[in-house]
Amino acid sequence: MIQQTMFIRKESFLHSLDPRTKLFLSIGLFLVGVLFTDYRVLMALFAGEVIILRVAARIPFSKLFPYLKLILPLVVMALLIWPLFQRTGTVLVSYWKVIITKEGIQMGIAMSLRLLSLIVATYLLLMTTEQRDLVLALVKSGLRYDFGLMLAIALSKVPALAGIALTIMDAQKARGLELEKGNIVEKVRKYIPILIPLIISAIRLAEALSIAIDSRAFGRGRRTYLRELHFTMKDALVTGMAVVVISVCMGMRAAGYGVMELP
After folding, report:
1. Which of 190, 151, 154 is CA-nearest to residue 169?
2. pLDDT at 1
3. DSSP calls for 233-257
4. In this structure, are 126 and 45 located in the same domain?
5. What are 159-168's contacts with CB under 8 Å, separation 24+?
6. Residue 27 — pLDDT band, cuts 50, 70, 90?
7. Residues whose CB falls within 8 Å of the CB of residue 123, separated by 6 or more in sequence, listed in order
8. 3-class SS at 161?
9. Are residues 91 and 28 in the same domain?
10. Quick one: 194 and 151 in the same domain?
11. 20 to 30 A from 218, CA-CA: which of 34, 51, 230, 239?
């Protein structure tokens, strides 16, 4: 089932924070994941993010796992391919031109955990913040309103188009279209009866959207907002703690901690 949003409605500490606070927190976790290359630090970061989602947002791992499955092929690819490029260090396997070292395996684990931690840092924001609040937070932070509108449309309409595509595919399969059979050229040709109705649906959707925007006098007069964001003491506390943690991590990185030393 295609959902238009990853947001999960809960009564939790993280859900109650200002969207700007959660945006800063997500960016901070993303930055920490980029700073370090030691697999032990990245494993602790990934575990910490999952704990934050479970404790502070009350989102169980069962809700997170379906979204992690989407990137598992990339994680496995990084885990398998990276050791092939790190050829120096303690050799574990040497066959023909293939050399696998202990350091290469550790680096592969580190890069896989880094990818997971960066993705979960993004999910932490998307699963605890409604789309309208996220766009409003970006606009209040200085993003032009028309850019914010484009972002809101992309977040809502792209999953809608994916749902339309699935509906068209089911309809064509009911008419006898076999998408799974044939070689690659035949499979590409079979997607033409799906692509054409999808393009027509997208054009109709764009026309209806443009009429709706024009009817609401978009771009005329001073912009007002139905919802207002409020930065509370709780947000200040979380932001301050995030600044301290990020500063400590940057200091550790500058001192050489959390970096895997390669021979």
Report:
1. 190
2. 46
3. HHHHHHHHHHHHHHHHHHHHHHTTT
4. yes
5. 159/2, 159/3, 159/4, 159/5, 160/2, 160/4, 160/205, 161/198, 161/201, 161/202, 161/205, 162/2, 163/2, 164/198, 164/201, 165/194, 165/198, 166/2, 168/194, 168/197, 168/198, 168/201
6. very high
7. 6, 53, 64, 67
8. helix
9. yes
10. yes
11. 230
Boundaries of domain holding 92: 19-135+233-254
Question: Number of structural domains, the chain?
Answer: 2
CA distance 61 to 74: 20
9 located within any domain = no
Q: How many CA atoms lie within 13 A of 112 on its CB side?
A: 19
pTM, entire model: 0.77
What proportions of the chain, in percent to the nearest 5, are helix, strand and coil? 65, 5, 30
DSSP state of 89: S
- Kindly list the distances between the CA atom of residue 70 and the CA atoms of 67, 216, 241, in Å, as whole numbers in the listed order: 6, 38, 32
* Terminal-residue alpha carbon distance, the chain: 48
